[in-house]
Design the sequence.
């Protein structure tokens, strides 16, 4: 399945919060939907879930208008919660049933997901008696209990310890391998890099960057080099690097400098110039930005 | 429909699994029916019922009398009232005896036809003035008979003959219907307020614990609100049904022992029970949907009281109006209100029990209530849907209605 957001616009009380956003996601892949707080990610997700209606634009599923009611969607909202006074299995089964599952199937699937989440021993306990991390896993089990084809996870890792995060990571990887369409919204870029083949960065209601993650990284790293020094402090290193012909210092990262290479100068010539300088080299090579660096560069300033 | 039933059973289970709900229902039902069983067996209430046990009785009471002209005298006073009377030396001694509680009341006979009564604290049911007035009347009559050589018994029969009468009501006996109507108005009022608040709290807590987004993206708001409200209605009907049913059954078994004393509360004609059940249930649903919607307009449980205040004012107005209008069940005001859905749930069965109402009026009023309840349900679901993801300050009802109407255009 291919899911396309096309020129979606949305206003609240006369203020437009989405200014015609477009991006797409595919089955068997995870799309990382990124953006600063208030950028419009949750609004976009809520339009997909038919919680809000778009003012204009449309969502297409394999080219046809998308109707959330016709698809099995597993949605883990950022603002989440279940019934604290009800037992774990009872509410998972309830949520599966209101999404259309038969009772026997819902119970069977609920038990299977609780086991997968290592929560079987808590099935008859009231939710409020579980730790925050376990409540989070119950929430994820309830999101996946009805075998959704589209899975929308909004900050699924918040509140999880490293062990539980690993369980969740494994589950998300399995879902992607199972051919599910996963939309993954998070501020934890490490997880996005780990799962997502494509990303869309929304800033102030506009998509400012989208595409394959590896292509984006390559594009952001083009003509860029990285250098760090054993003994030179960053300020001194920057002064020395500024004297080398064919490069300009365009930033600092990972304890060193990011250099921009002029098109007419080869890497070999630059290496030679650095070797001839008095820079005490620690590391030198092509620069591949992290997603965090790309994100900060793209969405770091308010529009 | 299937999803609605799933929500309905899930919500109803919450009530039925609640220890508080089950224990409260059972305790009230058992206490009510046990009282009706035990009381007539321990106390002879039937005799009291026949003699009118609420009438004022001066037996065993002690009074002080200051009668400087000896117009009454303690002997006559005792003969007429059966109470003990002691002479006081003067007015001060009389007041002292009342003040230090050595007498229950004091009487100062000022002239043949005037007296003053002194009591320490005036009670709700005390009727010393009437009692002593009777004594004074007896004294005046005795003196008149004595002065005119008349036989007191003959004279008494001549001026106060015993008149026999029987009363047959061809229409409705408002006096006997009054108390059970009064009770039923209170029952339905309590159901609406208690369960309405519970529904509003349930919706608001789903918002405050953030379960609402998962719910409204899983099924339709209609299924959610209708399931929740109807589950609350079922719980309310079950609870009141168990309590009222057990009390009525217990009374019907023990009616003879009670001497029919509680007929005015508990001998409700079946026709009135049916009208009450229909109007009460739909009136309750009418408000329950609105309570659900009001719950969705707030984000925090503590804001509910502010959100439902307008609704509560209407309910209170209808409640007091219904109680006051029980004295005038055929008045124009109660007739008008018996067709309005905000008030027909109490006023129509009150009219049916105590006044004159045609069958078509009951049917028309019920159709209006039914249609309004469905309309309120749809409006409530729209408000619920609109309010569910709006956090922060409570949403004003006018703003919410405007938003809902705008969406429908």
Sequence:
């Amino acid at each position: 399945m291919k899911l396309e957001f096309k020129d979606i616009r949305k206003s609240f009380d006369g203020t437009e919060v989405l200014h015609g956003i477009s991006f797409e996601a595919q089955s068997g892949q995870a799309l990382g939907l990124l953006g600063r707080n208030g950028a419009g990610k949750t609004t976009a997700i809520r339009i997909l879930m038919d919680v809000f209606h778009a003012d204009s634009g449309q969502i297409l599923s394999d080219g046809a208008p998308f109707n959330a009611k016709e698809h099995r969607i597993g949605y883990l909202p950022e603002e989440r919660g279940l019934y604290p006074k009800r037992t774990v299995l009872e509410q998972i089964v309830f949520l599966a049933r209101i999404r259309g599952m038969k009772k026997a199937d819902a119970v069977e699937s609920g038990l299977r997901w609780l086991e997968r989440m290592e929560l079987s021993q808590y099935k008859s306990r009231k939710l409020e008696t579980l730790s925050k991390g376990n409540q989070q896993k119950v929430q994820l089990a309830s999101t996946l209990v009805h075998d959704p084809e589209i899975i929308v996870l909004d900050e699924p890792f918040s509140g999880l310890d490293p062990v539980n995060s690993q369980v969740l990571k494994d589950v998300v990887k399995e879902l992607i391998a199972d051919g599910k369409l996963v939309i993954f919204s998070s501020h934890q870029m490490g997880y996005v890099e780990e799962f997502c083949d494509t990303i869309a960065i929304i800033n102030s209601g506009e998509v400012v960057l989208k595409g394959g993650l590896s292509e984006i990284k390559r594009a952001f790293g083009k003509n860029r080099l990285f250098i760090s020094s054993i003994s030179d402090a960053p300020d001194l290193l920057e002064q020395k690097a500024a004297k080398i012909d064919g490069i300009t210092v365009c930033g600092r990262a990972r304890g060193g400098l990011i250099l921009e290479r002029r098109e007419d100068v080869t890497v070999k010539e630059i290496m030679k110039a650095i070797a001839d300088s008095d820079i005490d080299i620690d590391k030198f090579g092509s620069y591949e930005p992290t997603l965090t660096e790309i994100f900060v560069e793209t969405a770091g300033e308010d529009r | 429909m299937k999803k609605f039933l799933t929500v309905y059973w899930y919500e109803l289970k919450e009530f039925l699994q609640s220890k508080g709900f089950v224990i409260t229902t059972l305790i009230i039902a058992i206490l009510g029916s046990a009282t009706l069983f035990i009381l007539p067996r321990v106390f002879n209430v039937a005799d009291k019922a026949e003699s009118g046990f609420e009438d004022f009785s001066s037996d065993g009471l002690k009074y002080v009398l200051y009668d400087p002209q000896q117009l009454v005298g303690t002997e006559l006073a005792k003969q007429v009232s059966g109470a003990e009377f002691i002479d006081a030396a003067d007015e001060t001694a009389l007041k002292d005896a009342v003040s230090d509680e050595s007498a229950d009341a004091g009487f100062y006979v000022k002239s043949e036809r005037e007296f003053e009564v002194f009591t320490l604290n005036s009670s709700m049911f005390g009727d010393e003035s009437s009692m002593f007035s009777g004594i004074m009347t007896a004294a005046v009559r005795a003196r008149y008979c004595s002065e005119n050589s008349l036989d007191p018994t003959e004279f008494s029969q001549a001026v106060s003959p015993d008149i026999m009468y029987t009363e047959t009501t061809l229409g409705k006996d408002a006096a006997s219907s009054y108390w059970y109507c009064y009770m039923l108005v209170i029952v339905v009022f309590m159901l609406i307020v208690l369960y309405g608040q519970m529904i509003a709290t349930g919706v608001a807590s789903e918002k405050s614990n953030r379960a609402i987004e998962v719910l409204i993206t899983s099924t339709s708001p209609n299924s959610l609100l209708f399931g929740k409200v109807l589950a609350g209605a079922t719980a309310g009907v079950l609870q009141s049904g168990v309590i009222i049913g057990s009390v009525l059954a217990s009374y019907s078994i023990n009616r003879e022992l009670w001497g029919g004393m509680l007929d005015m509360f508990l001998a409700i004609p079946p026709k009135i029970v049916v009208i009450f059940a229909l109007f009460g249930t739909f009136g309750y649903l009418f408000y329950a949907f609105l309570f659900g919607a009001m719950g969705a307009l707030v984000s925090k449980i503590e804001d509910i009281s502010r959100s439902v205040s307008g609704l509560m004012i209407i309910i209170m107005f209808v409640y007091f109006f219904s109680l006051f209008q029980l004295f005038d069940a055929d008045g124009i005001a109660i007739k008008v209100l018996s067709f309005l859905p905000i008030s027909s749930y109490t006023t129509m069965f009150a009219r049916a029990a105590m006044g004159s109402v045609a069958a078509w009026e009951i049917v028309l009023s019920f159709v209006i209530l039914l249609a309004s309840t469905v309309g309120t349900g749809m409006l409530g679901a729209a408000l619920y849907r609109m309010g569910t993801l709006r956090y922060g300050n409570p949403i004003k009802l006018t703003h919410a209605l405007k938003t809902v109407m705008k969406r429908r255009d």
About this structure: Residues 246 and 270 of chain A are 7 Å apart (CA to CA).
